[in-house]
Amino acid sequence: MKQQLTIKGMKCEGCVNNVQQNLASISTVEKVSVDLDNQTADVDSLTGITEEEAQEALAATAYQVTAIQ
């Protein structure tokens, strides 16, 4: 299932890598692609992820999921 997450707080490529790694740690996620300019992350997962799961994956970071489409 493909979803696009809007992520608040990313400022650099290090942020992109951090978000990508943390979202990829969700067990059902197969692929993550993060776009710094648009402040989004495209996520391919087996069953789709909830906003709670995404927030939990980013809990130890300064980033926040503000929307999932």
CATH arch. level architecture: 2-Layer Sandwich
What is the number of E strands?
Answer: 4
Strand content: 35-45%
Order of helices and strands: EHEEHE
Helix content: 25-40%
Largest sheet data:
4 strands, antiparallel
Count of distinct structural domains: 1
What is Rg? 10 Å
The spatial strand order of the largest sheet comes to: 2-3-1-4
Q: The CATH topology, please?
A: Alpha-Beta Plaits
Keyword list:
69 residues; alpha+beta; Alpha-Beta Plaits; 4 strands; 28% helix
Give the SSE layout.
Layout: E1 2-8, H1 13-24, E2 29-35, E3 40-45, H2 51-57, E4 64-68
Structure overview:
- With 69 residues, the chain is of the alpha+beta class.
- The protein has a single domain, classed as Alpha-Beta Plaits (2-Layer Sandwich), CATH 3.30.70.100.
- It has two helices and four strands.
- It has helices spanning 13-24, 51-57, and strands at 2-8, 29-35, 40-45, 64-68.
- A four-stranded antiparallel sheet has the order 2-3-1-4, with helices on one face.
- Strand 2 (29-35) and strand 3 (40-45) form a beta hairpin.
- The chain starts with a strand and ends with a strand.
- The model has no long low-confidence stretch (mean pLDDT 96).
Could you give a short description of this structure?
Helices cover 28% and strands 36% of the residues. The chain has 2 helices and 4 strands, in the order βαββαβ.
